[in-house]
Amino acid sequence: MLITIKYFGQIAEVTQKEEEQLEVNKNSVSGLLNTLYSKYSDLKNKDFQIAQNQELVDLDAELTGAEIALLPPFAGG
Amino acid sequence: MKDKKFKNVFKEGAISSNFIENSIYKHQTKTNIGAHNIFLGQVRADIIDGKTVSAIEYTAYEDMANQKFHEIRESAFKKFNLTCMHTYHSLGTVKAGEICLFVFVSSPRRKVVFEALEYIVEAIKANVPVFGKEIFEDESHQWKKNK
């Protein structure tokens, strides 16, 4: 499935882009993450959470095809 | 995709004292209110390894952030007897000494607003996907992380 992935803050510094669409043949968030780790190896050293359809999800969550976002530590306020 | 749109909490740049003053003024017609409480987050000129922070550049996952602000609002109204609540957060560059977060709660009674404001500000810090790039005077940077 085609998934839109958004990157923010220091994660976007690693990927050198804020958004991309990837054709993904994985079922879980962890599968997608492994694909991203092989594409951007520096991601392994970064602290981030993952949101799917704007809700934080665990690594074992199933991919639904909704938007994924890699969110570095929050710094609001 | 979620298509429900929530109120936009973000403002470009710093939140001016004029804007804050005007917000207070607008509540003079709401005479059932007996107590306001206001939190203002200000950009601190931290010194890190001998370098001084001159500004923070804020970005956000805006759709999710506005949804989270909405959830915090709903939960605050459920928990506390609030008459009204307003929240604004900056995006883009905010210089040291300028205001980046404005939370304004009102209630008939004072005790409620003390508790509610702390609850709301802590929830914002923990749950809203806003990111802060701390810019030093020499134009290098590091990424802020809420404690």
Automatic annotation (TrEMBL), chain A:
Transmembrane segments: none annotated. Gene3D superfamilies: 3.10.20.30. Pfam families: ThiS (PF02597). This is MoaD/ThiS family protein. It comes from Wocania arenilitoris.
TrEMBL record, chain B:
It is an enzyme of class 2 (transferase). The keyword Zinc does not apply. Its EC number is 2.8.1.12. GO terms for biological process: Mo-molybdopterin cofactor biosynthetic process. Pathway: Cofactor biosynthesis; molybdopterin biosynthesis. InterPro entries: MoaE_sf, Mopterin_biosynth_MoaE. It catalyses: 2 [molybdopterin-synthase sulfur-carrier protein]-C-terminal-Gly-aminoethanethioate + cyclic pyranopterin phosphate + H2O = molybdopterin + 2 [molybdopterin-synthase sulfur-carrier protein]-C-terminal Gly-Gly + 2 H(+). The keyword Iron does not apply. GO terms for molecular function: molybdopterin synthase activity. Keywords: Molybdenum cofactor biosynthesis. It comes from the Bacteria. It holds the Pfam family MoaE. Heterotetramer of 2 MoaD subunits and 2 MoaE subunits. Also stable as homodimer. The enzyme changes between these two forms during catalysis. Belongs to the MoaE family. This is Molybdopterin synthase catalytic subunit. It comes from Wocania arenilitoris.
